[in-house]
Write a structure and sequence with these properties.
GO molecular function (chain B): 4 iron, 4 sulfur cluster binding; metal ion binding; oxidoreductase activity
Organism (chain B): candidate division WOR-3 bacterium
Number of strands of chain A: 25
Number of strands of chain B: 13
Radius of gyration of chain B: 24 Å
Strand content of chain B: 5-15%
Distance between the termini of chain B: 43 Å
Number of domains of chain A: 4
Oligomer: heterodimer
CATH architecture of the largest domain in chain B: 3-Layer(aba) Sandwich
Radius of gyration of chain A: 28 Å
Strand order of the largest sheet of chain A: 5-4-3-6-18
Strand content of chain A: 15-25%
Number of domains of chain B: 4
Number of helices of chain A: 21
Protein name (chain B): Hydrogenase iron-sulfur subunit
CATH architecture of the largest domain in chain A: 2-Layer Sandwich
Keywords (chain B): 4Fe-4S, Iron, Iron-sulfur, Metal-binding, Oxidoreductase
Pfam family, one (chain B): CCG
Distance between the termini of chain A: 34 Å
Shape of chain A: globular
Helix content of chain B: 25-40%
Chain lengths: 610, 495
């Protein structure tokens, strides 16, 4: 959740230690997982709330930035987990599974509702394409009060969620529930309506258009007879027909060409339809495959075979029916534009693989060029940046909604400020204990017949246990409860009244407050209605009186932020010191300190600049 | 000296992230927002009651939702601790309670503004009563040579404190004033024959009048207990622990002063000490000697810790209460378990409230005087023990032999002395619930090492304070294996 600060319209220009700088006030410096999420979901917050068993609030936090939690909870590529600091200790927190847990919980707690106080706006916005990007933009704009209509060319919403991802990874009822939850906000959905010229919608009274038709055209192999033979099909077509029930069984040997998620999905679906042998043919090695590692591993487990460094060069056929694939071996050469090493055919290495079916999964491209539209048409989703993940599509939707809102409301678009420097929480000094990552129950391979979902959700106990592995990186525990209800975020403005000292914690400014050894006050000034106001602000932190500390260690036991450590003082005496960058000023250590050595620092010098 | 401004008022501590259920700004309620409810200790709760508040409520986040994880849990513990103490104090425990706040609405937080604690301030000593006649310093430096605090190297010196005063600078660092642990070891080597500890005590009284507020150990709970007992008109229930088989009386010639033992047991039971067992054993021993002691349900703290903090006003209230109670019970002789209480009665009370007219003695002195024969405990044959001279009992009251006589009177027990014993004994580090820091810990470790070096299996004490502080030092110092036992428990066969 972005913090709503009661900032004067002209903004706050802060002068910190004499250096004048535009400073965006943010509630917290971000934790690595949140930085890693393209959609900016406040991961640490909901993980923390799950750990505390506050599932309702966790769900609210997820929905702030992700309208499709159940979908992401199943198929997200979870870049957040790659950023997780647990990687340096054991394994990342199972964030995707936790999101899924909270989304499943949402199914029982009812759909999201539009807050009653949402101001209604007259402007109508059209969204073309009911994929994840379109759904996100619609959800965001509806929450801002706009009237939104989604146009979808197919007979059902979801886009690639429905046509690309197999039900055993993403059950169809989950897609339906989540889309319905978005539509319930009061969004109109028009199906079976293909929009090729989004500019036309502007003439029909829409104030802006978000154009996200996706990539619907499969890329061809470019081999002779590709379009004429029986037994060769592109993955998009194959999956759609399989999901619709048009193809119920597949016999013989199946070759899938490609290395992306579609290739893996096609192979796994083919296996489920009864194919005797399914082999993925890829021209690079496993390391270069764009598909998610865990999906590759599942496919392998299900018996899918792989032929790496193999490139198809011709189709073998008899009586207009495909019988095999002529291939050539490759080796890896210099990196190409994508940064991956280019496969180079080895001369004279041609060979033939027998096949009854070939499924091509080489990726998709837009069905039409997406450029040359009027100003008020915004392009998003795969159409804007090429095929990407669900979470990237959601991020693209957020960005589109922000731009459309800026255009229509005249609200100044907040320039993304440079992020507050994240405080270093080096694992080397963490007292973190190695805790094994929770595993959800997975359907055994021998039971995987139909399209039944493979992965079970966490139980509430499992979820809470897994969430409590979170190291809470960043300067606060980001429970975000303060964002919901703490008026202290307005304290900067209360500084106007500097006749009395004010003690505060300003989230996100922590880095400014401390030298290595001492907390210090910072001078804060900003202009308000032409008058410069401000004062000295000092953080509320605990500090140790070395003369009184007997290093008994009780404080270390209660500090939830690992902000205390025992060090050698003069004459080799051991004392406990406060790490001011971690201390959050809760004062629990003060309560348990038997000697009174720990005190909350509350001394504030009065402002000297009036 | 009831504080009328607080009479009938209630105090609410509230975590600034929740609101107070059903609160509409009632009158005679003081609301104090805190950034986490876990920062409210039992000391602060009792201090509020001592200041005349009629009740204290802690409003915190519901269980399991504390942002700082343990805040609510700590608040529950502190409330429970305060309630246990209130039970003995005779107050209804419900006066102190924890309630869950409403997390969806926060109260408007007042600016958190609190007085700055005085840690290193200076103050001037008025010349009257503190002239050179009180400080006869020959500048020999022997005090600094033996002082266990100076020895730890934290920069304290008894001589410097006296010299600052004598040289007419008239300003004294409170840091130094509170760093003295009052063991009076320096006075045994001082050629002037003055008690340095008593001088410090008097200077602290002046500092106290000047508003100096040192950091108190254990959140000030011991001093708060003293003040509540000084001011409250509520009848205590401090004998709730008393077992029926023990014979005690309401009136009579001989009284047993149990002191703060019930309260200390609540506060320090987690260290493994069993002070109420010591008190029970003492009564049983007296019963065996044919004495049915008077135990007063409403006896109050002797005032030792308030006196050594400098709060003479409340100490005087305590002295008067105790003397009135003892006299009206017809008591002429008082037996003490705690040398600090004995010292306060014998030395301080006459200065505060005039001659007591009471015969005052430590239980060891009483048992020796009445020819006590320790029962023969078969299990305690051939044991080697060593003895810790309490500062107040030994150096300050000159009682060295009675406890030793009792120990050696037990069949099969052999007494060995530590490197420093009798007048040169090292303090247990008890201080007066002030300044319990690294210096104290070091001297405790040194003392335990000395005890260990004697080869004894038990360290016998004659003071509950020594019991508590050595137990604490031992708990945090796993290298020391020697067990501590109170003399009374050893005599009763519980050693």
């Amino acid at each position: 959740m972005d913090i709503v600060l009661n900032i004067p319209p002209e903004g706050i220009r802060l002068k910190i230690d004499g250096i004048e700088a535009d400073f965006q006030l943010k509630p917290v410096a971000d934790s690595p997982c949140r930085v890693g999420c393209p959609a900016g979901v406040n991961v640490k917050a909901y993980v923390g709330l799950i750990a505390r068993g506050n599932f309702d609030r966790a769900l609210a936090v997820v929905r702030e930035r992700n309208p499709l939690p159940g979908i992401c909870g199943r198929v997200c590529t979870h870049p957040c987990e790659a950023e997780c600091r647990r990687n340096e200790i054991d394994e990342p927190v199972a964030i995707r599974q936790l999101k899924r847990f909270i989304a499943d919980y949402a199914l029982s707690s009812g759909p999201a509702v539009l807050p009653a106080e949402t101001p209604q706006r007259r402007e109508r916005v059209a969204v073309v394409g009911a994929g994840p990007a379109g759904l996100t933009v619609a959800s965001d704009l509806r929450r801002l009060g706009y009237q939104v209509t989604i146009f979808e060319a197919q007979n059902r919403p979801g886009g690639m969620l429905v046509w690309g991802i197999p039900p055993f990874r993403l059950p169809r009822n989950v897609i339906e529930e989540e889309i319905n939850s978005i539509l319930n906000l009061g969004i109109e959905l028009v199906l079976n309506t293909r929009i090729d010229n989004p500019g036309q919608l502007l003439d029909e009274g829409f104030a802006a258009v978000f154009f996200a038709p996706g990539h619907q055209q499969s890329i061809r192999l470019g081999l002779p007879f590709e379009d004429e033979l029986e037994g060769i099909v592109d993955s998009l077509n194959f999956l759609k027909r399989a999901y619709e029930g048009e193809v119920r069984s597949l016999k013989g040997r199946v070759l899938v060409i490609g290395g992306g998620d579609s290739a893996i999905d096609s192979a796994r679906v083919a296996k489920r339809l009864g194919a005797d042998e399914v082999t993925i043919v890829y021209r690079r090695t496993r390391a270069e495959m764009p598909a998610a590692e865990e999906e590759i591993a599942e496919a392998e487990r299900e018996g899918v075979r792989f032929e790496f460094l193999v490139q198809p060069v011709g189709l073998i056929h008899r009586e207009r029916r495909l019988t095999g694939l002529r291939c050539v071996r490759c080796e890896l050469g210099e990196p190409d534009a994508s940064g991956r090493r280019r496969p180079v055919p080895v001369p004279g290495s041609e060979f033939i693989i027998d096949a009854d079916w070939v499924i091509t999964a080489l990726g998709q491209k837009p069905a039409q060029p997406v450029s040359g539209f009027p100003d008020r048409v915004f392009i998003g989703g795969d159409a804007a940046g090429g095929p990407a993940t669900v979470i990237n599509a959601i991020a693209s939707g957020h960005e589109g909604a922000r731009q459309i809102d800026a255009l229509l409301s005249g609200r100044k678009v907040a320039v993304t400020a440079s992020r507050v420097p994240e405080l270093e929480l080096a694992p080397a000094v963490l007292t973190a204990v190695r805790l094994s990552r929770s595993q959800a129950r997975i359907l055994p391979v021998h039971s995987r017949r139909g399209f039944e979902e493979i992965e079970a959700p966490f139980t509430p106990e499992q979820a809470m246990q897994e969430a409590s592995r979170c190291l809470r990186c960043g300067p606060c525990s980001e429970c975000v409860l303060c964002s919901y209800n703490c008026p202290k975020h307005q304290l900067l403005l209360q500084l106007e009244d500097m006749s009395k000292p004010v003690i505060m914690r300003v989230h996100g400014l922590e880095g400014m407050f401390f030298t290595d050894t001492e907390p210090r006050g910072i001078k804060v000034e900003f202009s308000r209605q032409g008058t410069v106001v401000g004062g000295l602000v000092q953080p509320l932190v605990a500090h140790t009186d070395p003369y009184l500390c007997r290093a008994c260690g009780r404080c270390l036991e209660v500090c939830p932020h690992q902000a205390l450590k025992t060090v050698k003082w003069q004459s080799g005496i051991e004392i406990t010191q406060v790490d001011y960058q971690r201390c959050r000023g809760c004062g629990t250590c003060v309560t348990v300190c038997p000697s009174g050595a720990l005190q909350l620092r509350t001394e504030i010098a009065p402002a000297d600049n009036g | 000296m009831a504080d009328l401004t607080n009479a009938g008022r209630k105090l609410i501590f509230v975590c600034s992230r929740v609101n107070i259920p059903g609160f509409g700004g009632q009158e005679r309620v003081t609301v104090r927002p805190v950034s986490c409810i876990g920062q409210v200790g039992a000391g602060a709760i009792l201090e509020a009651l001592a200041a005349g508040m009629e009740g204290v409520t802690l409003v915190g986040c519901p269980d399991g939702s504390c942002r700082h994880e343990k805040g609510t849990e700590i608040a529950h513990t502190q409330v429970k601790l305060a309630q246990e103490l209130l039970r003995y104090l005779g107050f209804k425990p419900e006066l102190v309670r924890f309630i869950s706040g409403d997390p969806d609405k926060a109260i408007e937080p007042a600016a958190e503004s609190r007085p700055v604690p005085a840690v290193t301030e200076e103050f001037s000593v008025p010349p009257a009563g503190f002239g050179p006649a009180d400080f006869v310093c020959l500048d020999c430096g022997r005090c600094a040579g033996v002082c266990p605090v100076a020895r730890t190297g934290i920069g304290f010196s008894p001589r410097r404190l006296i010299q600052q005063q004598l040289e007419g600078q008239g300003r004294i660092q409170t840091r130094a004033l509170y760093a003295c642990i009052g063991c009076d070891l320096c006075s045994t080597v001082c050629p002037s024959g003055k008690s340095f500890a008593r001088t410090v005590e008097r200077l602290r009284a002046v500092a106290y009048e000047h508003g100096s507020a040192p950091v108190l150990a254990h959140g000030g709970i011991v001093q708060a207990l003293g003040r509540i007992q000084a001011r409250s008109a509520v009848r205590q229930q401090r004998l709730l622990w008393l077992k029926p088989e023990l014979q005690v009386a309401d009136k009579g010639e001989t009284a047993l002063f149990t002191g703060c033992l019930p309260y200390f047991q609540v506060l320090f039971g987690d260290l493994g000490v069993n002070l109420l067992q010591t008190a029970s054993n003492a009564i049983a021993l007296l019963n065996q000697a044919g004495v049915v002691p008077v135990l007063l349900q409403d006896e109050v703290c002797c005032g030792h810790d308030l006196l050594w903090l400098g709060d003479r006003q409340n100490a005087l209230l305590l002295a008067r209460k105790n003397l009135d109670l003892l006299r009206s019970a017809g008591v002429r002789q008082v037996i003490f378990l705690c040398p600090e209480c004995l010292h306060t009665f014998r030395v301080e009370y006459p200065e505060l409230a005039g001659p007591t007219g009471l015969e005052l003695m430590h239980i060891a002195e009483f048992l020796v005087a009445t020819g006590f024969n320790p029962p023969d405990h078969r299990e305690s044959v051939s044991r080697t023990v060593t003895y810790q001279d309490p500062c107040r009992l030994g150096r300050q009251l000159g009682v060295y032999d009675a406890p030793r006589q009792l120990i050696t009177g037990i069949s099969g027990v052999k007494l060995v002395e530590m490197a420093h014993s009798r007048s040169q004994a090292l303090c247990c580090g008890g201080t007066q619930w002030l300044e319990c820091g690294a210096a104290v810990r070091l001297m405790q470790e040194r003392r335990l090492a000395e005890a260990q070096a004697t080869g004894a299996e038990l360290l016998v004490t004659a003071c509950p304070r020594c019991d508590i502080h050595l137990a604490c030092a031992r708990q945090r110092n796993s290298e020391s294996a020697i067990r501590t036992v109170n003399l009374i428990d050893l005599l009763a066969g519980n050693g």
